[in-house]
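Async update (no meeting this week)

Hi team, since we skipped the sync, here's where things stand on the single-chain job. The sequence we agreed to prioritize is pasted below, unchanged from the tracker. I ran it this morning and attached the output directly underneath so nobody has to dig for it. Comments welcome in thread, and please keep replies under the output.
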Amino acid sequence: MKTFFSSSDIVQAHGVMLSDKKSFIGQPNIDFLGMKFVDGRYQPGPHITQELLKFQEENLTTKEIQQLLGIVNYIKDFIPECSRYTSQLSKLLKKSHHSGDKLRL
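Output:
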């Protein structure tokens, strides 16, 4: 209970407003900003990985590559050697000047 009160004091001291509808105490699982927190560990929510599966494998537009890189960057902590893969996609973006261009992967 002491931890709860000290957390409450910190929140109030910094002017943070919490919503009664969205505030739960003592929950074993938390979904927050697309991440699932369970037992002190976190992983991407299933909807994030499902979004990755929606991308086609070839002929992506510049905008689609940007979207793909955004999602991958969000979950990069879970992808070993992530920059090894994303660097190639980033290079493609530098070569393209128009957002509607189809790029060959």
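Quick observations from my side:
The first strand starts at residue 29 and ends at 32.
The first helix runs from residue 2 to 13.
Reply here if anything looks off.
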